[in-house]
Write a structure and sequence with these properties.
By secondary structure, the protein is an all-alpha fold. It has 7 helices and no strands.
Length: 186
Amino acid sequence: MKLLSTDHSPMAYALDFVFYGAACLALLGYLVVLAPLHHWGRLAGWALLGMLAWTTVEYALHRFVQHGLLPFSRWHDEHHRRPEALISTPTLVSAALFLGLVYLPTRWALGPSPAAALTLGMLVGYLFYSTVHHAIHHWRMDNAWLRQRKRWHAQHHHVYPVSGYGVTTRFWDGLLHRATTRWLTR
């Protein structure tokens, strides 16, 4: 079924960015209109937590799912073989995961406004990751930070495929490398 394909047409690939941009705006609009003013500080904290949590999810998905779990690793191998191809998780799948693993459990545990704020943060993180990943594969780089990300990601693709799992940050790669090295040298 084409809706569940990882190899996208240019339109389907672009619609993913549009969908997540619109979802971020919708969640932000919901919070601005319906969340009580005296909760905005706490909700901003939930959104920030969501953005930070995304970096952990990004690393874990890439390292343990896309590089270790069938059939995801087979699909991801195709991205490594054709890095310029428009390959990504189908929007239907990623949206269902955000809904089922982030929004609904948080809504059940904390209520609608914290769930919207946490999900907003995660979606902003995901949209940022998607944009950076697209940029490092398709754009010419004038920005030093993006050039650094491009070099780091190119090493992951071509030189050290067992490292460099973070696309937007090297934090988790560095932390887990130091922890593993310390554990192995005991």
